[in-house]
Every structure is written in structure tokens, then in C-alpha cells.
Amino acid sequence: MDLLNNPEQKKQSESLIYKYEKIKQLDYDFCKLFNKFNHIPSLSKFLGAISILGNGRFWYALIILQPLISGRTGFLTSGLLLFAGLLTLIVYLWIKKKFQRERPFINISNIKITESALDIYSFPSGHTMHSVCFSIILISSNIWWGLLVVPFTILVSISRVVLGLHYPSDVIVGAAIGASVAAITLYFIQLSIFAGI
Predict the structure, then answer these.
(1) Could you give the C-alpha distances from 34 to 1, 44, 87, 134, 182, in angstroms and in order?
(2) At residue 163, what are phi and psi to the nearest 5 degrees?
(3) How far is CA 156 from CA 48, 151, 177, 188, in A?
(4) What 3-state class would DSSP assign to 35?
């Protein structure tokens, strides 16, 4: 039977297209809504600074500080952060090349940007991906890190949409991937400890 001419198959296909378009429109609508906050100069500057810090500076500083704060345990934490960061970067670059979704300020009219983009593609949010990944690993080493990294990660994630550089779905998927990489990293380190490596 020709599946393309099958009415049931055609109906399912149309239903999927409709759902995709609905989600895409919601993504666009929320992007425009969040971007309105970028027209508030003080908020725009603040979130711009957060976004720049979230591009690596904040996390590099914490990686360097771990051994100074926690000694031998800190060296292990720094090693985990570097490993997870490299793994996250590989996944991020592969997905970005695969999907090549253009940023909101390219696809949506009247989107205001106040920070230059590293490239033209938005999916997924690398800032969010790394922030979530690093936050989980830091909190697993010492729960008190949560007081610093959780608010920072939330602000980084919000800033990417407000600044017109990402869609909400970019941030959501970035967060999910970052959490997954952190969980995998921590799982394998636990296996190594129990195996006596």
C-alpha cells in the first residue's frame, strides 16, 4: 500500500505539521514578549553583562578556584568540570551544525539585540547548556554552590531570550542537554570510584 496516499497516514502527517507550527508560533511569540524587556536600558545592560560572563568567564574563574577552595577535592571537581565542558562543547557543535536554526533577530522582525552573536545559529543555547551542566556538577561537590550558581544560571538562560539571541526552545533544550551531560559525567565518576579506579 502506498503510505503517501493512505488517508490515515496523511491525517497523522498533517496533525504533526499543525502541532509543529503551533509550537513554532509559541516560540516566536514568547521570543517577542521576552525581547520587550531588552528595551529597558538598565535591564538590557545588566543582562548583557550576565550573558558575557556566562560565555565562559564566570565558569573559568570557578574552575580555577576549586583547588584553592577545596584542595584535593577541588582538583577533582575542576577535572569533572573540564571534562563535562569538553563533552558538552562537542555535543553542542554537532547539534548546531546538524540543525542550523537561524537566530531570532534574523527570522523575526523588530527583535532588538544589544550583544553581538558568535554565529548566526541559535539551536541549542550553549550558554544555558554549559551553565546547567556546570551548576549540577558544582552542587554535587558542595550544595552551598547552589546559592551562587543557580541564580546565575537562571539569569543567563533568561538573558539569551531577552537579548534576542535565542528562542525559548533553544534554552529549554540546552538546559536538558546540559543536565544530561552532567548526570552522565557524575554517573561515570561514581562507577570509577566504586570500581576502585
Answers:
(1) 48, 11, 30, 25, 28
(2) -75, 0
(3) 9, 9, 16, 28
(4) helix
Q: Where are the alpha helices (DSSP H) in the chain?
A: 7-35, 41-52, 58-70, 72-99, 104-107, 126-141, 146-162, 168-195
Kindly report, residue by residue over 53-94, the tens digit of the pLDDT: 999 899 999 999 999 988 888 898 999 999 999 999 999 999
As a residue count, the chain comes to 197
- Residues 6 or more apart in contact with residue 168 via CB below 8 angstroms: 27, 30, 31, 34, 161
- Please give the Cα distance from 187 to 181 (Å, whole number): 10
| Residue given cell 497516514 in the structure block | 9
pLDDT (mean) for 168-181: 96
Helix (H, G, I), strand (E, B) or coil at 102: strand
Mean pLDDT within 172-189: 93
- Say how far apart CA 54 and CA 178 lie, in whole Å: 14
pLDDT tens-digit readout, 21-64: 788 889 898 999 999 999 999 999 999 999 999 998 999 999 99
